[in-house]
Amino acid sequence: MLSKKMHHQIKIIPLGGVSELGKNMFLVEVDKKIFVLDAGIMYPETEMLGIDFVIPDIQYLVENKNRIQGIFLSHGHEDHIGALPYMVEDLDVPIYATKLTLELAKANISQTIKNSSPNCVEIDKDSILEFGNITVSFFQTNHSIPGSVGIVINTKDGAIVYTGDFKFDQSAKGIYQAEIGKIASIGEKGVLCLISECNGAEKPGFTISESIVSGRMNEQFFHAKGRIIVACFASNIAGLQHVFNAAKANNRKIAILGRRLETVYNIAMELGFLEVDNDIIISVNQAQKLPHEQVVILTTGDQGAPFKALQRMVKGSHRMINISSEDTVLIAASPMVGSELLLSKTVNLLTRLGANVVFGPGKIHVSGNGSQEELKMMINLTRPEYVVPVHGDFKQMMGLGKMAESLGIDPDKIPLLENGEILEIGDGFAEVRGKVASGNVLIDGIGVGDVGGIVLRDRKTLSQDGVVIVTATISRQTKTIIAGPEVISKGFVFVRESEELIIESKSIVKKVIEKRLGSDQLEWSAMKNEVRENLHSYLFDKTKRRPLILPIIMEVK
Fold it and tell me: For the chain, which domains are there?
């Protein structure tokens, strides 16, 4: 039984991963010690035009880096390790992870930061780390990538258990098998708080077993008459293994497309987490010389990359592979948030071409996350006093909360947090007391955080209503317009069909400039603002559109 009197001051702070899918990062503070659980990215939402991905704001960690004990990684998917390259230079703290997770994290860091030497510490499911009077231990979980672990922060007040991503597949073996007995033992000793993923909280029953999906994949390979193209996510190691097994069983060779897959494949093979006969892997050039019934093309990537590659193949614009009506296309991936429309368009293009397209949950792909009964099982095994839902949108968090309540957890002990909120756990209570800096840091190319709300707003305006560029050259001495004004439309109106609009726009700009030139003091910013405001009112009145207006006024002596 847990002690009624608290020995520690305990806080739980999500910096990402609540009320959103991805960007997972959760802080557990015990007294003054900070334990960082995961450091993931989130793929951009539709309105984040041009953004590659999003990471959490780590200002709070930078300000308190002397208190950080380490970054503890649950597994090697991008939404749990992808932010590390943008943290290690500001936070020189140990990174603890299992072998595969650690190697994938190192590869990510080295691709972004040259000659980096992060402080990496390899652990396994049986490791026990000591941090004064606090110990950190682990238990193996069942997920779509090997080396997945739950993380346990052991305190005098009970264990704080972070599940990471998990499911309970009763057919899983070896490196994919969940340590159910160890989880139950942790529950017997006393769990103060369960920080549980809730991604599958709206899916009834159990997640379909990987063994069933493997059989269905093999069946598709057996019946396919021509070439097989498989699209999946690079870090879904379990799914990749299904493809390699089916290819071997049906005497097919595999050609790999995608830099991300090559990295994951090489690391997983070197560490022994993939079982692949070397003689079934061939180059794309070799594949093009073989009969189609002997070939598999495996294309992978992250987010929408597999779907984009398929679109290029079906349109005939891919540099290596073109899909024909004789091909079988297996889409072994569920679309992430923001790429659903891309998948739908891809399937339509493939269907119109006449290819045999197989996709959808449970057919040749299965989620790596547990459904309702598995989430309930985790709660029953650990028997926590508090349940904190994470790694899900608000509906999913609410769903896990309702399940926990149905299992006897006091609803007052199931807080639904927002990013940055500080949850303090005390003698019989858990309350939000304050908030730390949190939010989205946008990654665009090599830029980190240099794209903000104003830039995104401008990009949205450009995508919807286009841009109008106004140019003019003036003389301050003679107070006259030397050249222009010219009005250039890009993405706003077709100039040849809008001559009157352009002529009137030039007249408006000319009047504003001449008025400003006639004043005693010439203020450039005031002139540009007046041009922008007058032209904006006129264009909206005539077109009901709001283009981005860029005045460029130059001076000559």
Answer: 10-205+367-448 (3.60.15.10), 210-359 (3.40.50.10710), 466-556 (3.10.20.580)
